[in-house]
Amino acid sequence: MNRQHKKRDLILLVFTLVSCLGFFPSSLHAAMSPKEILTKADEARGNVEGVEWEIDIESIEGGRQQQRTIRVTARDFNSLADFLAPANVKGQKLLMLDRNMWFVKPGLSKAVPISPRQKLMGGAANGDIASTNYAGDYQVIQSLEDTANGEPCYLFDLSAVDKKATYDRIKYWVSKERLVGLKAEFYTVSGKMFKTATFEYENSITVDGKPQPFISKMVITSAVLKEDVTTMYFRKVLIKKVPDSVFNLNLLLK
Question: Distance between CA 134 and CA 156 in Å, rounded?
């Protein structure tokens, strides 16, 4: 009888341990606030202490194909985008500093203030190539649960805190397990969806000694013309120290 009790107790112990191991991460994430979850998702899209990457942008719009290559240097949610190709845009820069954006072009004596909402190329806005700050630029109107590509997600309904945000409203699916954004729908202030995006994370970076996923691909599709698609490939991701001088507007004009 004692042997049976011991066997039963051992089975219960194993079951309890397996359950704890299986559910501990989810329980830990469940204790996070929506803002904390968004902050973690922002890290996978450039919002870290210092990082550099290149973006190859390919767009098809109205049957016309375009390509651009841009190098982005970011620290937290400040970023500098250097246009590398093609030749007609090489040397142009976009600076995002303290939620303000400027355009710099060789030959211009002054930087031009622009909006992150302005079109960059195809379906991509200027703000799409900068490091993401959804946690600071948006407030959570509603938090639900859903799935994206079969993966359990938090579904956040986000509203811009002001006009400096790239979009008025976003529905954003964040993986519960990986805490990365998987899918987004973008809406006008009147509530009309005008484009969607999906995200992949095959890159990896090390932050505070721990590896974590980093965006590798973003596909933007027009909600009106499904054949209009913009694909952004993120490569050559490098964690590095980024000095203040990178974001000095006066130095960029020299």
Answer: 11
Q: Is the Cβ–Cβ distance between 207 and 213 less than 8 Å? A: no
Task: Give the C-alpha distances (Å, rounded to integers) separating 225 from 118, 174, 230.
Answer: 19, 26, 12
Q: Is the Cα dihedral 154, 138, 112, 250 positive or negative?
A: negative
**In 3D, which of 212, 223, 216 has the Cα closest to residue 199?**
216
**Domains by residue range for the chain, with CATH:** 46-252 (2.50.20.10)
Residue 245 and residue 50: Cα distance in Å, rounded?
A: 13
Q: Are 124 and 141 in contact (CB under 8 A)?
A: no
Dump pLDDT digits (tens) for 116-140. 999 999 999 999 998 899 999 999 9
Residue range 11-39, pLDDT digits in tens:
444 444 434 444 444 444 568 999 999 99
Structure tokens at 202: 């095959």
The per-residue pLDDT for range 47-89, each reduced to its tens digit, is 898 999 999 999 999 999 999 999 999 998 899 999 999 999 9
Residues 6+ away with beta carbon under 8 Å from 237: 51, 52, 53, 203, 205, 214
How far apart CA 243 and CA 245 sit, in angstroms, is 5
